[in-house]
Amino acid sequence: MKTMSTLVVSTMLALGAVACVEVQVSTADSAGTEEAAAAADAAPGELTADEAEAGFQSLFDGESLEHWRGFKLDQVPAGWAVADGVVHFVPPTGDDAGPRADLMTREQYRSFEFRFDWAVTPGGNSGVMFHVSEDARASYSTGPEFQILDDGGHRDGQRMETSAASNYALHARQGGELAPLGEFNTSALRVEGAAVTHWLNGEKVVEYTLWDDEWKELVAASKFASMPGYGMMETGHIALQDHGNEIWFRNLRILVLPD
Question: Which residues of 34-55 are buried (b: 16+ CB within 10 A; e: fewer)?
Answer without folding.
Answer: eebebbeebebbbbbebbeebe
